[in-house]
Amino acid sequence: YELGNAFLSAKKMDQAMEPALELLLAHYDAGLVAVAVPDMGMKEMEYISIVGCTKGFEPGARAAISRQDIAGIAIIERCPAIVTDYSEGDFTRSELFERCGVQSGICIPMTVDNSVVGALCFMYFKPRQFDTAELWYMNVVANILGVYIEKERSLEKLEESRAYITSVLEGIGDGVIVVDRDLKVKFANRVFSDEHDRFQEEVIGGLCYEFIHGKDKPCFENGEKCPVQEVLETGEPSTAEHTHYDEDGEPIYVQVNAYPIFDPFGNVVAAVETTFDITGRVSLEHDLEKRVKELEEFYDMAVGRELRMMELKEDIVKLEEELERLRNKTK
């Protein structure tokens, strides 16, 4: 209970670990209590927290993981390692333990989901025996600390992933929003908020159609194609072209792409929407269409004139032939 309060009262694990170990130091009357966590390759361990006699050691001290050291044994074998008297055993003491002059100790693996996340070590300055009940309670405490450590790691990884994804979405040159099934904006990058002259904090939590279309009901209820709605219904990507208007009433043509976000069970829980201003492209298309139409009209006019000229030439030839015939007849 006290360990739980120590962790709950602190905002971060590294701030909670030391007061938690202080409680263990006093409760088990130990000379030194430390937590060591292995690296990814299981070659070295780092003492992330040390209380009691440290003799110049600070959190962050590293040591090789070895079967000659009880902390290493606890991590490698995933079982408690006990030395009742270093002077009578074959175990070697780590530099930290040797500096402090420990004579006995126990290191217990901290396991979460069958994985060792570290070792909790209780070290003493004189030979000491450990009974079964004491070992059981120490094991429980070790696993409690392991859960907190793993939770902190998971939160750190989640925060790193969130920061990475946010960085990617912010780096995209298009407007990007994430919309849930209620059409509420869960995320908006800076490009999107700037396009709609809003702060990001204003956009998040609002309804997408309020910011995008300035309307009080979804665009699909106004007869427009809504890619987000289609994605939420079908789970398939969708695209559409929408026409927005600026403050002067000038049209802004936007390509809207939407993609599904699934939960672990395959259900569509949200959609990612990207918006890309295609006004320049559409304006160019309109200009080209206008030019083609003008050229077609000119062609029709030119061809029509040419045909008329040919008809006039034929009429002139016929008249000349008729005139020549009349002259010959007169002679």
UniProtKB/TrEMBL annotation:
Residues 238-290 form the PAC domain. Residues 161-235 form the PAS domain. NCBIfam families: sensory_box (TIGR00229). Residues 302-329 form a coiled coil. Pfam families: GAF_2 (PF13185), PAS_4 (PF08448). Gene3D superfamilies: 3.30.450.40, PAS domain. Keywords: Coiled coil. This is PAC domain-containing protein.
